[in-house]
Amino acid sequence: MCKYYIGYTSNFDLRNASSSGGVGSAIIKYLLTHHRFGTAITFEFNKVKCQYEPHIIHNYDDYNNCGSIYQDISLYSFIKNNINEIKDGIVLTCMPCQVKPIKSLLDKNNIENFIISLCCSGQTTVEGTWYYYKLLKIKKESVSHIQYRGDGWPSGIKIVLDDGSTIKKKNYTYPWTLMHKSLLFRPKRCLYCTKKTSQDCDVSLADPWLKEYIENDKIGNSVVIISSTFGIETINNMLDDKELELKEINEETYIKSQLGTIEQKAKACEHRTFNKLLSYMGKDGSYYKKIATSSESFLKLHNRFVRILYKVF
């Protein structure tokens, strides 16, 4: 039986720097600093590769609170390749589709774990971000750093260039929406995914896309779904220690906050032919993808074509 809450970390700086409420970062900090776990995973931007990369850490001082990462990362492979670096258990954040295989890997190796899952509407390949730079008419080689979310809610994308200049775009606005809606930079598994959350994790987190928060919240709140006894114990301890400010909500409120994505994922099985065609169109190196992404005008035509195909299939 899941428990549902909405709220934020009591640490204002942590809350403001996070994507929405900072509850995930607060849990990681709490479990590391209280020595409940000895290992966590953080993500750092690699300028040379122009993408985020995961890193094993054993001290919260090394944690990079970087907000959301709109970039698909093979976290299972990373953990498998670095499993010997895990000491005294691990707390980590991942996508719903990654929870079960990662948990199975850790359990198989007798590694205690606390898994935080982010409610997911579908990932984007790193090439999608690189194409976003192209739409902004900047070269990826000139990007010093990018942050997709953070610095308030719902915030947006901030790009820092080598010359010190900064480009800021509000959350989910043009031209990110042009690239994102094309579905040409969507991992194949995301096209068929029906998972919004995972019951196998300890805690799931989501944005509170509810009218009262959209209109009034400028700092951030998190929808918190607790799926395990360990999760309930941890959240209760953090509440007792005044680390979190949460109020209990019901499942209907959670569903309302994520209704669009839930409905979209529910239809994934109904549109398998459409998704199969999209998968072919978005295949790396395909002539269609090369033509569709050759200019902004062609991508807009492609998006119109996709809307027609969706209705047909």
Characteristic key phrases:
three-stranded antiparallel beta sheet; alpha/beta; eight-stranded mixed beta sheet; about 40% helix
Strand order of the largest sheet: 3-2-4-5-9-10-1-11
Measured between the Cα atoms of the first and last residue, the distance is 37 Å
Q: Which overall shape is indicated by the principal axes computed on the Cα atoms?
A: globular
Contiguous runs where pLDDT drops below 50 for at least 5 residues:
none
Characterize the structure shown.
With 313 residues, the chain is α/β, with parallel strands linked by helices. It is 40% helix and 20% strand. The protein has helices spanning 12-17, 23-33, 75-81, 96-108, 126-135, 176-182, 188-192, 211-216, 229-240, 251-257, 259-266, 272-281, 287-292, 296-312, and strands at 3-9, 39-46, 51-57, 90-94, 113-118, 143-147, 156-161, 166-170, 203-206, 222-226, 244-249. The strands form 2 sheets. It has an 8-stranded mixed beta sheet, sandwiched between helices. Helix 3 runs parallel beside helix 4 (96-108) and helix 6 (176-182) packs across helix 14 (296-312). The longest helix is centred in the last third of the chain and has 17 residues, at 296-312. The protein is globular, with a radius of gyration of 20 Å. The model has no long low-confidence stretch (mean pLDDT 96).
Give the topology.
Blueprint: E1 3-9, H1 12-17, H2 23-33, E2 39-46, E3 51-57, H3 75-81, E4 90-94, H4 96-108, E5 113-118, H5 126-135, E6 143-147, E7 156-161, E8 166-170, H6 176-182, H7 188-192, E9 203-206, H8 211-216, E10 222-226, H9 229-240, E11 244-249, H10 251-257, H11 259-266, H12 272-281, H13 287-292, H14 296-312
Parallel strand pairs: 2-4, 4-5, 5-9
Antiparallel strand pairs: 1-10, 1-11, 2-3, 6-7, 7-8, 9-10
